[in-house]
């Protein structure tokens, strides 16, 4: 098992490094890469909900993934302000939500459904709509925030002299490094120190010592990332201009590590409710894409807020 985890980790890290290297020359390459990951993650979530007897309007889930990215790219090429892009994204979310809530009242044809689980076709369709909306928010919308970080400068999220190639890379690395370090040292800390369980009813393998180890190392990883990037004039000047120092990075590294751990616990809760061990079997020893991205979903929010506040 441990050997499989090491091989899978090396593969994941290798692919990520290659994509980020290509991204430095053309950020849209990363958009395509991330869109594929989001779609697979949505597919895994659909499978988990089906295990619980909840189906969804799958085509709406997949269409939303593409539409979210399309709005970011359109905003970039039209030169829209960040708030204008947010308004468009919120409009999309509200429109889809309204459609999903109205759909159960519009079907007139005979519908086949599990009569032992639902008392009427309308109840079945409402459950299907709510499941669709659930998956739109988690993971599609949360993972979609990565597109904003990828084009962080062009879409006006920050006003810096750095380019998307440089500053976008820094933002993406913040997400991945904090989450990966937190996950890795939470596991190693739990194995080394053991002790009391964190939430035995949700995830019996997670310990308090592992939780603390992950948060401490995730915070230190954020501080280390700051020191590395301040060694380069192109990013150091940006931090100096907005008066952002290592302690701000320590704070948000801490919050990002906590968010990563909570995201992991939330995913464990969903899997326990569905009676599955992993979201998928793509990576031996690691599970599926959502097993690797559950912490990133929540950490993305923290990193995005960090740049909105300080830059």
Architecture overview:
The chain has 311 residues and is mainly α. It has one domain. 74% of the residues lie in helices and 3% in strands. The chain contains ten helices and two strands, in the order H-H-H-H-H-H-E-E-H-H-H-H. A two-stranded antiparallel ribbon has the order 1-2. Helix 3 runs parallel beside helix 5 and helix 9 runs antiparallel to helix 10. The longest helix has 30 residues. It is globular and about 65 Å long.
- Tell me the structural class: mainly alpha
Radius of gyration: 21 Å
Q: Averaging pLDDT over every residue, what do you get?
A: 88
Report the uncertain regions.
Answer: none
Count of all domains: 1
Number of helices: 10
User: CA-to-CA gap between the ends?
Assistant: 43 Å
Task: Write a compact overview of the structure shown.
The protein has 311 residues and is mostly helical. Helices cover 74% and strands 3% of the residues.
